[in-house]
Amino acid sequence: MAGTAEFDEFVMARSRHLLRIAYLLTGDHALAEDLLQTALVKSWSAWRRIHGDPEPYVRQVLLNTYRSWWRRRWNGERPTDVLPEQPMAAPQASVDERDEVWRALGRLSRQQRVVLVLRYFEDLTEAEIAQALGISPGSVKSYAAKGLARLRVDPDLQALPLPGEDVPAGNERLVAVRERVAQRRRNRLASVAAACAVVLAGIAGYAVAPGRGPDEFAGVPDFLQGYRIVERESARFGDEQGRFEMTPSTMDLAFFPACTHSGYELPLVVTVRVNGESMGTAECDTRGLSFDARLQPAPDTLRDAGVELGEPMTVSFSLDVGYVYPGSQPENPEPSGPAPADGLMAVLVGEGVPFGEVPLPERPDTLAPLSRPAAALTGSVLLTADGPRTAVYSWERRAVRIMAASQTPGELRVLLNGVPVEVKTWWDYEQRVWQSRFDPASDDAKRRGLSAAYPMQLTVTVEDAHMTGDWWLAVMPSE
User: Which residues pair with 404 in a beta bridge?
Assistant: First the structure.
């Protein structure tokens, strides 16, 4: 392929078709658009190396990105600057006949859904699907047969719907993709400049050595997202991993991993482990260290890793490949070259403290209105500051997604059938949307005293504390 003109033409001509694939995979308009744009931006960096029809390559990147999102999505709570466009539907959506289609498709496993989309929407052969997913043709047949068997039991299934007409047109999507490509270039230039600054600082005698060092943690407050930061550690990519020991005084721990580099063909993530057991991952960035990701393992998870109060525990963090690159094996992706020499990874460890001990910012004279969904998505419940605090949720899947936003600092405690399962907390006025995943049938739920077996009705209750403004919380099906 050549360059910009061919890429623009491809986006204009084929992106809507690829959007339909993304929508069939995610079942959500906003996520589908984000998935497609992410795949297009990733493909742009390799555009000049693509020979022949670029669509199979872009489709492969889209599939790999989708699978990587769902492998990493629920490692911990993640803040969202703005309310997602489609977490809630309009009230009339509950009577839309297509809802039964998406609920049935959504109940399939991720792999069954991908196989059926590629087989009956993309019309790929079993061999082509096997090559795209890195599995055997026999596995493709098995996933397709099981998926179709599950769909056949629903008598209301009709033709699959197309995404709504409110999605961006091809030219609007092209503008958005161009901006994301330009932003990636700006980020890389900024990272290169930062790397040069580090080199110059080293010449002047101020280079920061791996391990403890003040510079990479400049500006990191003593409290972050309600946790008192008790450890700060970093390591260079060339060190392979960082490692340190600490003695916890509480089982309410949070890990804030981050890593940065000037650019790499494969997306990279940093993995945090406690006593050798993984606590989760965070994506690397090219704009410097950003400790936005929070890994908050449950006390039982820490105990399973051998953590005991007053006893030393070992925390390590290392670099991993974030997703499967086209053409490599899903189980063991092969990087095409060494990781960037200027790469830096770091982790903060925080210990939970009572809400009243966390210093809060000064309250603004005027609070910005909180974006609140008007109605709950079919099969979901919505609780608000001025509405009901209790609702009945018809549990139909193994896990649920819990989303919440607040206008002011405060806490929302979530109970299922009277059992506390989640605490959402805000310490500022930025109105972040917190989202997390909880499995009512998990061992963790059983240890908390929640006994759930599909299908059943779950009573969702929200208790607020320290709230002085508007808030909302929604419980909905999840993968």
Answer: 434, 473
- How distant, in Å, are the alpha carbons of 278, 291, 344 from that of 75? 10, 15, 21
Place of tokens 């490949």: 321
How large is the average pLDDT for residues 144-154? 72
Instruction: Return the amino acid letter for 57.
Output: Y
**SS3 of the chain:** CCCHHHHHHHHHHHHHHHHHHHHHHHCCHHHHHHHHHHHHHHHHCCHHHCCCCCHHHHHHHHHHHHHHHHHHCCCCCEEECCCCCCCCCCHHHHHCCHHHHHHHHHCCCHHHHHHHHHHHHCCCCHHHHHHHHCCCHHHHHHHHHHHHHHHHCCCCCCCCCCCCCCCCCHHHHHHHHHHHHHHHHHHHHHHHHHHHHHHHHHHCCCCCCCCCCCHHHCCCCCEECCEEEEEEEEEEHHHCEEEEEECCCCCCEEEEEEEECCCCCCCEEEEEEECCEEEEEEECECCCCCCCCCECCCHHHHHHCCCCCCCCEEEEEEEEECCCCCCCCCCCCCCCCCCCCCCEEEEEEEEECCHHHCCCCCCCCCCCCCCCCCCCCCCCEEEECCCCCEEEEEECCCCEEEEEEECCCEEEEEEECCEEEEEEEECCCCCCEEEEEECCCCHHHHHHCCCCCCCEEEEEEEEEECCCCCEEEEEEECC
The single residue listed with the structure tokens 């990279």 is 268
Judge whether 115 and 129 are in contact, CB under 8 Å.
yes
Selected residue with higher pLDDT from 191 and 253: 253
- Hey, what are 400's tokens? 């649920």
Across 46-111, the runs of DSSP E, i.e. the strands, are 78-80
Give the span between the Cα atoms of 478 and 69, in whole angstroms. 13
pTM reported for the whole predicted model: 0.49
pLDDT in tens, 254-299: 999 988 877 666 677 889 999 999 998 888 877 778 888 889 888 8
Is pLDDT at 345 greater than 50 in this prediction? Answer: yes
Residue 260 pairs in a beta bridge with 285, 344
Q: How far is residue 450's CA from residue 441's CA, in Å, rounded to a whole number?
A: 8
What are residue 362's phi and psi, to 5 degrees?
-65, 140
Return the structure tokens found at 310.
């007053």
SS3 226: coil
